[in-house]
């Protein structure tokens, strides 16, 4: 069925309620206030979907629909679907190859259109579908010859940097930024996705004793900057700002959200930072996440606050108010990324062994009106919920359905 508009949905619900009362039926429960209730659906290395490579188109489609049905059953309203996990595509892109996570062979047509189907089927269930792109990761190996022959990374080897056992597009090359935006916006032009979503990977996470070799690009394009760090941050700023403009040009009304690592800067580094002692996106990933919020370049920010309440290095109870203050007075909405995958998992701290910990997160966040909802990593755990943490969240906080905020 076609997705109902917000106004149409409200009118339909009201009509049903009135009809029920006239017939003497029990009144329907009112809907909760608009809030994000999302889950990430990861396709990289077949983490969440498809369960393995080489399934038939019918099997893949059935598994995908089961994931959407799980979201509905948990009273979620948004699925963040990873459609470009590795400089590839889960739609018929003219720019990049079909993802190997579908068939086992990069570039091989899977026999159907996963992104097109996901949009249609999500909307039919009243779910939003956010298309999740990893903009710069090319491969989880360093051999370009393992890529399909037509891959842009083979055609333009100067675009690629090997680092930490992986291949990355170099954001310091203007042609790279232009290309990855064109490749991603192709999906936005083809499908009525509700949002474009980036995760936390910009420049690679630091590895001790290794450096990201962008000397040639810095020599060519970094002359106007006092140091390499400022130049790198500007490269990522341009990628974010230009992507936002591109989305608005291609499909006005489609939103743009980013889910960064949860710490911008530590207060001991910058008094504007959080009371934490953790990796810093500004300094280590060259991602000025606070700036993107304050400049209203993005429609929502979903920091990955994957720590428990009371964590010594990064306390959830300190980071939520920091992010709430950061978005205050901006047009950027705040959702909180929750580490469902860590709940009850072996080796996790005692706090995360408590089935109620994530429910406590939502209770704490409710004291901050700037927090407009939560997103759970990831779909496998939402479905299996081995320790019952997701069921506890649903029972405590999601007894009624809710529309996502706009």
TrEMBL record:
One matching Pfam family: GHL10
Gene3D superfamilies: Glycosidases (3.20.20.80)
Domain of life where this protein originates: Bacteria
Keywords attached to this entry: Signal
Residue span, Glycosyl hydrolase-like domain: 35-345
Name the record gives this protein: Glycosyl hydrolase-like 10 domain-containing protein
Organism: Streptomyces cadmiisoli
